[in-house]
Specification:
The chain is α/β, with parallel strands linked by helices. The protein folds into 2 domains: 12-136 and 277-327, Alpha-Beta Complex (Quinone Oxidoreductase, Chain A, domain 1), CATH 3.90.180; 138-273, 3-Layer(aba) Sandwich (Rossmann fold), CATH 3.40.50. The protein has helices at 23-29, 77-80, 115-118, 128-131, 137-146, 162-174, 186-194, 207-214, 230-239, 261-267, 278-290, 309-317; strands at residues 12-20, 44-52, 64-67, 70-71, 91-92, 109-112, 119-121, 154-158, 178-183, 198-201, 220-225, 240-248, 270-273, 302-305, 324-327.
Length: 330
C-alpha cells in the first residue's frame, strides 16, 4: 500500500514496526462482519512516529508508540465520563465503513487520528512486544475484570483464548482470591495455569460444580465471557454468584439471544458489555506491563512477515495459532 500522504492537524503518521492478528479481525476475514474488498485490516500495533500534525503536542517524530484500537475523541460527554468505547465518533482501524472507514495497521504505515488522545509512548523498548497488546486485547481483558472487581473477589473466565488469557493475568495481577478459567482446549488451559489460574476443562467436568467447589458454594463474584457465544454466556450465568457481575468482552454479532432471564433476575446479576473503554484503563495497564506484572507477549505463537499475511489469517482462522505478530518489513 502507498504511504499515506495526508496527515491532519491532530493526526500522527506512524511507521508500523509490529502488528498483531486479533480475533476481531476474523469477523471481517469470514465476512460475518462485512468489509469492502481492499480494506486494510488490523488494529493492534507498535510503531515509530514519522510525522505529526500541527496541533499535536505530546509526540514528535522518532517516538516509539502504541495506540488504542478504538479511536475516540477524548472530549465528548461520554469520553469525559470514562466511556470512550461509546464515543459517538468512535472508529476502529481496519473494520470498514461500519466502524468509521479507518485504514488498518497491517501495512507499513498508518495514520492515527487524535494522536494526543489515543497514542501512548513506549518508555521501555525491552517491553515493546508486551506493549503491543495494550491497545486492544490486554486492556480489554483487564477492563473485563477491573471495572467490577473488589479485592479478594473470586473471578471466573469463560474462554482461554487471547482475551481470556489477558483477563486471567489481569485478575491474578489485581490479587483476586480465586481465578478459574473454563475452556475445552488443554493447551489453552495449560497456558492459563501458567499465569496462575485454576483450569477447568468443560469437556471433563461441570463448570458450575467446579467453580462452586472452589468458592465454598458461593460462585464467582466476577465472571468474564471472553468468547462471545451463547453457550459461553450460559456458562457464565451458571457459575456466577448472587449479586455477581458478568462482563462481556467477547464480540456478539447476533441480533438476539435466548437467555435464562429468570436466573439472571433471581441472582441479581449485572451484565456489562460493549467496546472497551481503552482511554480509561490504558495507563494503568501500561504501568503494570512496564513493572513486569503483565506479560502478554508469552502468548505469541508465531512471528511472520506481513508478506505471509494470507497464510497467517488462514492459520489463525483454523485455531492453529494462539497469537500471530507481523513484521511489515518482511
Amino acid at each position: 500500500m502507498p504511504k499515506p500522504s495526508e496527515v491532519g492537524p491532530t493526526d500522527a503518521l506512524v511507521r508500523i514496526d509490529r502488528a498483531a492478528l486479533c480475533g476481531t479481525d476474523l469477523h471481517a476475514y469470514d465476512q460475518s462482519m462485512p468489509v469492502d474488498p481492499g480494506t486494510i485490516m488490523g488494529h493492534e500495533f507498535i510503531g515509530t512516529i514519522v510525522e505529526v500534525g500541527s496541533a499535536v503536542q505530546q509526540f514528535e517524530p522518532g517516538d516509539k508508540v502504541t495506540g488504542a484500537c478504538i479511536v475516540s475523541c477524548g472530549t465528548c460527554a461520554l469520553c469525559r465520563r470514562g466511556k470512550s468505547g461509546n464515543c459517538p465518533g468512535m472508529r476502529v482501524y481496519g473494520l470498514g465503513v461500519a466502524f468509521g472507514d479507518l485504514p488498518g495497521v497491517h501495512a507499513e504505515y498508518a495514520v492515527t487520528p487524535f494522536a494526543d488522545v489515543t497514542l501512548r509512548k513506549i518508555n521501555n523498548e525491552k517491553k515493546a512486544e508486551d506493549v503491543l497488546f495494550v491497545g486492544d486485547i490486554l486492556t480489554t481483558g483487564y477492563e473485563a475484570v477491573r471495572r467490577s472487581y473488589q479485592p479478594g473477589d473470586a473471578v471466573a473466565i469463560v474462554g482461554a483464548g487471547p482475551v481470556g488469557l489477558c483477563a486471567t493475568m489481569s485478575a491474578v495481577a489485581l490479587g483476586a482470591g480465586t481465578v478459574a478459567v473454563i475452556d475445552r482446549v488443554p493447551e489453552r488451559l495449560a497456558e492459563a495455569e501458567r499465569f496462575g489460574a485454576i483450569a477447568i476443562n468443560a469437556a471433563e467436568t461441570d463448570p458450575q460444580d467446579a467453580v462452586f467447589d472452589l468458592t465454598g458454594w458461593r460462585g464467582a463474584d466476577v465472571v468474564v465471557d471472553a468468547v462471545g457465544h451463547p453457550s459461553a454466556l450460559e456458562t457464565a450465568i451458571r457459575v456466577a454468584s448472587a449479586g455477581a457481575s458478568i462482563n462481556i468482552p467477547g464480540v456478539y454479532i447476533q441480533e438476539s439471544l435466548e437467555l435464562p432471564i429468570g436466573e439472571l433476575w433471581f441472582k441479581g446479576i449485572s451484565v456489562k458489555g460493549g467496546g472497551c473503554n481503552l482511554l480509561r484503563y490504558m495507563d494503568e495497564v501500561m504501568a503494570l506491563v512496564e513493572a513486569g506484572r503483565l506479560n502478554p507477549s508469552s502468548m505469541i505463537s508465531h512471528r511472520m512477515g506481513l508478506s505471509e499475511a494470507e497464510k497467517a489469517y488462514e492459520m489463525f482462522a483454523k485455531r492453529e495459532a494462539m497469537k500471530i505478530v507481523f513484521d511489515p518489513t518482511k
